[in-house]
Specification:
By secondary structure, the protein is an alpha/beta fold. The protein is built from 15 helices and 19 strands. 35% of the residues lie in helices and 17% in strands. A 7-stranded mixed beta sheet has the order 6-5-7-8-9-18-17, with helices on one face. A 6-stranded mixed beta sheet has the order 11-10-12-13-14-19, sandwiched between helices. Strand 7, helix 7 and strand 8 form a beta-alpha-beta unit. The relative contact order is 0.10.
Length: 474
């Protein structure tokens, strides 16, 4: 948003073909520092353009040169203009405009702000480029906030546990004959530190970047990178990142859970009623399920329920044990989910209502407490991370985690193991990714990348089907 406050300024253009000077008339309380930020120029550059102020303070109404351009390389922000609109005007991407004007990463666009708009200046910023020659080593860069500049213990914990899993994955793959080099970089959640690292580190042999953690940092790395190095986003799953063709989002979005549940219901669908239980805040998921189902079965009877008590009242009036119904829990609210499970078990299952199916869009820890009841109802739920504790290879990896960290229950160690193992396992010995869209089950996660927009996103959702007196299926 552009601020409504209008700054008084004077812009005088010389009529020389070879030079275009931009002047500023100094206002009360203005400083060189403030002008440098306003016009996107360093204090030293201002002093070079105005030798007389080298050893003097600014004076009110003094006219100083703030730009001396040899071509049309700047844009003065007008009222109601946006970053997107300006980038389109000059045939730039939003990322390129931000790269030319890094202050836009930290501040909103301002009226009369001077922006660089020449692509020629992009050459002054080093970009990540891929030039592998014939190297048969694999080079990975991991970027996470291991020591955040702000005191954020949880973020630090997640990053360090992810790193433990990453190193265990590399150790496992090294034994298969791959030569792997891991560069670990601490972003500290600081844009300037990230930019300096990108500009100074030699990325010529890098095969993949994993991280950073947040969307803003991901956008910064993407804006500074060429499209040749795959960049994997392990935590941010914002779909706006998919505008970049070298992005791979490893964490599934909500729509992937919806597609998986709907697909399973449709496999054996025989005109059952569908009742989706949710809250006002979470109703988006419920409507996604409803609309997705109606695409294939437009005549389906689908009801979205916000009040479990009304559902119970209507059920008591029904008393028809032959009615076939599919119940879907589309909520992460413990109280509602617990009430729903109690209803399904006490009112339906115990009363011999056998023609019902029960699903949950996503996993809740509450399910572990209610596991015996859910098994009796053959309850089904979607999940991104779930370890098959009966698998031999899973047991071996869990034992490694236990021996190396004493944190065998850490989901972040398991996730770090999965992400890094999956990325490198898809590479040949020279680091080239050869089968990105092939579905793969790892320790706790499933990876099934699909092309979406320009990038790729993981749609690997596991369906856990709880079976009475049998091993659960995945």
């Amino acid at each position: 948003m552009i601020y409504n406050k209008v700054f008084l300024f004077t812009v005088i253009f010389s009529f020389s073909v070879f030079a275009q000077k931009i002047y500023h008339k100094v206002q009360q309380k203005e400083t060189l520092y403030g002008l440098s930020k306003k016009y996107n120029i360093s204090i030293d550059e201002i002093k070079k353009l105005n030798p007389l102020i080298e050893n003097q303070d600014l004076s009110i109404n003094q006219e100083i040169v703030v730009k001396n351009n040899t071509s049309n390389t700047t844009h003065l922000v007008k009222e109601k203009e946006t970053i997107y609109g300006i980038s389109k005007k000059y045939n730039l991407t939003v990322n390129e405009l931000i790269q030319l004007n890094p202050i836009l990463n930290k501040e909103e666009l301002k009226l009369n702000q001077l922006l660089f708009i020449s692509k020629g200046k992009l050459k002054n910023t080093q970009k990540i480029t891929l030039n592998k020659s014939n190297s048969e080593d694999i080079h990975i860069v991991l970027m996470l906030p291991f020591n955040p500049s702000e005191n954020k213990e949880n973020i630090q914990k997640i990053s360090n546990e992810f790193l433990i899993g990453s190193k265990l994955a590399i150790d496992s793959l090294s034994k298969e004959g791959k030569i792997i080099h891991l560069k670990v970089f601490d972003t500290k959640m600081n844009d300037e530190i990230i930019t300096n690292f990108i500009n100074e580190y030699d990325f010529k042999t890098v095969d993949a970047i994993i991280g950073p953690m947040f969307k803003k940092e991901m956008n910064l790395v993407l804006s500074l990178s060429e499209k040749s190095i795959p960049i994997f986003s392990p935590f941010s799953n914002s779909e706006s990142l998919l505008e970049n063709r070298n992005i791979y989002i490893t964490k599934p979005v909500e729509n992937s859970f919806v597609e998986k549940i709907v697909e399973d219901i449709q496999k054996n669908y025989v005109n059952e009623q569908i009742k989706i239980i949710t809250t006002e805040k979470e109703q988006k998921s419920a409507f996604l399920i409803k609309n997705k189902f109606l695409e294939k079965y437009p005549e389906s009877e689908i009801e979205i329920i916000f009040d479990i008590n009304k559902l119970k009242e209507n059920f008591q009036l029904q008393e028809n044990k032959d009615t076939s119904t599919v119940y879907v829990l589309a909520s992460q609210e413990n109280k509602l989910v617990e009430s729903s499970i109690d209803f399904l078990y006490n009112d339906l299952y115990l009363n011999q209502f056998k023609n019902f199916k029960s699903y949950s869009l996503d996993y809740l820890p509450l399910f572990d407490e209610k596991i015996n009841l859910l098994k009796k109802m053959n309850f089904v739920y979607g999940i991104h991370q779930k370890v098959n504790l009966n698998g031999l290879s899973e047991k071996i990896i869990l034992n490694k985690i236990k021996n190396n960290s004493c944190l065998e229950n850490s989901k972040h160690i398991k996730y770090g193991y999965d992400v890094v193992f999956d990325v490198i396992d898809r590479m040949d010995k020279s680091g080239k990714i050869i089968d990105i869209e092939l579905p793969k089950n790892r320790l706790s996660s499933k990876f099934e990348y699909k092309k979406e927009n320009k990038g790729h996103i993981n749609k690997g959702i596991k369906l856990v089907k709880l079976l009475d007196f049998k091993n659960d299926t995945f």
